[in-house]
Amino acid sequence: MNTTLLDPRTGGLRADLPTAVLHDHLDGGLRPATIIELADAIGHPLPSADENELARWFVRGAEQGDLAAYLDTFRHTTAVMQTAEGLRRVAREAVLDLAADGVVYAEVRYAPEKHQERGLSLDEIMQAVQDGLAEGMSEARTPGGFPIVVNTIVCALRTERRSLEIAELTARWRRRDPRIVGFDLAGAETGWPAALHAAALALIRAELVRLTVHASEEPDLLLISDALEHGAERIGHGVRLAHDMTDLSGPSPRLGRLASYVRDRRICLEMAPTCHVQIGAVDSLERHPIGPMLRLGFNVTVNTDNRLMSGVKVSTEMAAVAQAHQLTAPELHRLVRNAVESGFGDHDERQHIMTTIVDPAWR
Fold first, then answer.
1. Domains along the sequence of the chain with CATH
2. What is the pTM of this model?
């Protein structure tokens, strides 16, 4: 890897190099200081009242390799996101933090149904988040001086029975706010295939809302094929697609039918490599399939998933992947292009970002 692309202070990519992210959970990217302040205001107990120690606590939860323990850490972030003020602040700060890291195009996702513990309606939740994102975009500039575009993906929880309600909410808000760009099925996956939410997914397709579906747990390929069968245009994570390939890093890699289908149709895989190592989906970044898959022509992207829990930023994740797989500058450029090209936002806006910001900076 060309070390001139790195910031020696952070170990990540230089923040003046524009990047993009498609898979970033709003409730997984809070500032520890914000959690402490908001938790104190509502009397919610935290594992630590020290900003640095709290940040380390969240990462330790991810590093246990236990998906249930990892997901349990979210009870502290969602606890402080139950008021319109809290949601608006978290959304605004997410935009500012992404921009400060060099991100010029982002899609942030969250599940509105997780934020009703203090009586907010779904519409009030949606309004607060959109207001916060808009405020952040109006203020933010990257270190390279570029603006940031942030769109929203609305999640339904696959373990609950509200997916049709959330799909209707998404479609209604999409008609009034073009920054609502997509729908997702999130949460625990094993035992909860997309097929259980066929009615919601059919409504989303009928309303012409873009669709991504998480598919990264067991039973591996079945979850991915199930998501595709129900209309997924992108796959959240998708790391286990490597199980449909042999000799992936060898001289003669062979692809199974599903892997070939995903590659040939340029279906985007929203990969979050550090998260995949932390939850035990792969042994290490070096053994992660993203590098070989990129070179085989798959539409892979680098994502943070949950910046707080994984202790990552887009810039550090890109650098870690680049170093683990000895990616070149053109290959890093390809990863950024993949993300912007695969975004669900307005085509002309994304093309403008590509031609006026991303391509000139990387070339």
1. 3-362 (3.20.20.140)
2. 0.97
